[in-house]
């Protein structure tokens, strides 16, 4: 892991989750979100469903592989291969972060907000086998965090927009009453960290990323010579 950065980010994440639990979770659990807010959340929350993201990543991978086989010029073949590895990277981050998040939420067994009046916000029933006790961390938010963190690492120029989208889409789980804010913060952070770890793995394999001197993964430019003066 990159030195220093991960300690600072982990410290901030833990404090954000704890403060959210102490300040925001109880008011959210004790109240019903306004109807317009809930409708907006229901409209947007489907983006965090991992199924279509997994299918899209698989499509990217095989489309890139097909292009690599069928195209003739070296440039187009390199572009196709690049797309295929993006698909592989997205598939890896979304699938495995989701699997781990689902295991964690079952192991922790936190009651969801709609059971706040029955169990409170600090009710934990590990491995209950019931979805009512699978609130922390949010699986949808984990998927959203992994997806947008992956794109923020691949296309850092637009990272602010990607971060904003991740926060908005993650918080739709609060809007629809499915999760507490702390569940969403934990899910977003977990997904983002998993994407970072996978980027480091890909960089060590020489794919998509390269490691900076401090160990941070940087997206490779597909055609770096194009940025040199007179390259055209």
Automatic annotation (TrEMBL):
Major subcellular location class: membrane
Single GO molecular function: hydrolase activity
Subcellular location per the Swiss-Prot or TrEMBL entry: Cell membrane
Transmembrane segments: 9-30, 50-68, 80-104, 136-155, 160-178, 184-203
Bilayer disposition of the protein: Multi-pass membrane protein
UniProt keyword terms in alphabetical order: Cell membrane, Hydrolase, Membrane, Transmembrane, Transmembrane helix
Cellular-component GO terms for this entry: plasma membrane
Boundaries of every Phosphatidic acid phosphatase type 2/haloperoxidase domain copy: 86-199
Database matches in SMART domains: acidPPc
Pfam families noted in UniProt: PAP2 (PF01569)
Protein name: Membrane-associated phospholipid phosphatase
